[in-house]
């Protein structure tokens, strides 16, 4: 399906759209002006063919955000697909080992499960949201089905409390970090520990895989973030900070690593040279969580005070500071299907924010008031 750019100053674009599932032509010759966004295209498709839910526009396997311009990004002979998504899902994991699934569009609680009688200290969802790992005080990391709650595998090591956990993008590996200062890479198919990483002095608070799984990053109480080779288990870079490092996250292209620390700043580093590329300053308290958007152009930050900040990673400017949580924000996520942001807090609530206006549109609070704390959350388009 080609997008044809007319030879005129107005750059009118004529677009045909196929279904990503069936390949059927949904509509053809939609005429949009040069200033049109992906959101405009989505609305035009919905007007022509109708929709029982949200329509996502896919380009090269990635869901395009609504504010992205068509002209400039989509030019020449390219393929665009539309995916009818019944509703976007929000998955939340709490320290009482409860995992909830919500309809992020309607605010309806779809499912709530108690996955373990043991309290969790850390948690992470796989990229496809099918699995969740709960890290506990006894050194066990429990791999479970997020759909059924069934236990799949126990990852056991002698390292004390499991302070942080992460999945590789393909779901084949897991990274667990401990109060002892060690971290371990696991093969989730066999349950075997394939690498042990032990360079931190004291607790390791943060873990992350690069998108291609070639690198892992850790951050600890020893005021360092470290970059490791997944294949060899060797430490490649040590990045010094002025205080404990609470979060690490890779950019989508793995060229950069962000870290958040005691100093109320987010630092962005080159994963090749270890050079500090830039720093996002003036958060109102310690940075507890942060991540890049899927296109690498935005950074979302959650802090100890309960505030959430959205940054333009290219301009290094703060777009919004969002306030509403009563306690520290422990998890944040982008929800591109709704052009929303999500944050989860120690107050037991998750909040949905309008990315454009900064307005809070929904609060997911089934565990609010119970003393349960949000440890992790993730979003996915429901199919």
From TrEMBL:
WD repeats lie at residues 155-196, 197-238, 238-279, 280-321, 322-363. Coiled coil: none annotated. SUPFAM superfamilies: WD40 repeat-like. InterPro entries: WD40/YVTN_repeat-like_dom_sf, WD40_repeat_dom_sf, WD40_rpt. Gene3D superfamilies: YVTN repeat-like/Quinoprotein amine dehydrogenase. Keywords: WD repeat. It comes from Polarella glacialis (Dinoflagellate). The keyword Iron does not apply. It comes from the Eukaryota. CDD domains: WD40 (cd00200). The keyword Transmembrane does not apply. SMART domains: WD40. This is Uncharacterized protein. PROSITE patterns: WD_REPEATS_2 (PS50082), WD_REPEATS_REGION (PS50294).
């Amino acid at each position: 399906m080609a997008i044809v750019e007319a030879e005129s100053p107005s750059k009118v674009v004529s677009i045909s759209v196929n279904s990503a599932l069936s390949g059927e032509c949904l509509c053809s010759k939609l005429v949009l002006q040069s200033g049109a966004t992906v959101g405009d295209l989505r609305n035009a498709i919905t007007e022509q063919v109708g929709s029982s839910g949200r329509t996502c526009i896919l380009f090269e396997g990635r869901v395009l955000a609504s504010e992205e311009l068509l002209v400039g990004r989509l030019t020449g002979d390219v393929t665009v697909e539309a995916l009818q998504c019944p509703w976007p899902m929000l998955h939340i994991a709490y320290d009482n080992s409860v995992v909830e699934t919500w309809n992020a569009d309607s605010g309806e609680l779809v499912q709530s499960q108690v996955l373990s009688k043991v309290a969790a200290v850390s948690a992470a969802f796989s990229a496809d949201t099918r699995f969740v790992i709960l890290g506990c005080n006894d050194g066990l990391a429990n791999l479970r089905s997020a759909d059924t709650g069934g236990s799949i595998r126990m990852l056991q090591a002698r390292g004390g409390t499991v302070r942080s956990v992460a999945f590789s993008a393909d779901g084949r590996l897991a990274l667990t970090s401990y109060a002892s200062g060690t971290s371990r890479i696991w093969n989730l198919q066999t349950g075997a520990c394939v690498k042990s990483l032990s360079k931190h002095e004291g607790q390791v608070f943060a873990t992350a895989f690069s998108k291609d799984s070639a690198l892992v990053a850790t951050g600890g109480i020893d005021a360092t973030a470290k970059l490791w080779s997944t294949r060899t288990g060797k430490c490649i870079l040590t990045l010094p900070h002025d205080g404990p490092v609470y979060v690490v996250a890779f950019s989508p292209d793995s060229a950069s690593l962000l870290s958040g620390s005691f100093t109320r700043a987010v630092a962005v580093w080159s994963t090749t040279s270890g050079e500090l590329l830039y720093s996002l300053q003036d958060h109102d308290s310690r940075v507890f969580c942060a991540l890049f958007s899927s296109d690498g152009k935005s950074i979302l930050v959650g802090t100890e005070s309960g505030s959430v900040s959205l940054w333009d990673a290219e301009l290094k400017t703060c777009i919004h500071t969002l306030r509403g949580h009563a306690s520290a924000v422990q998890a944040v996520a982008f929800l591109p299907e709704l052009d929303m942001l999500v944050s989860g807090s120690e107050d037991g609530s998750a909040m949905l924010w309008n990315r454009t206006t900064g307005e809070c549109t929904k609060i997911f609070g089934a565990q609010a008031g119970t003393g349960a704390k949000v440890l992790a959350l993730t979003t996915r388009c429901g199919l």
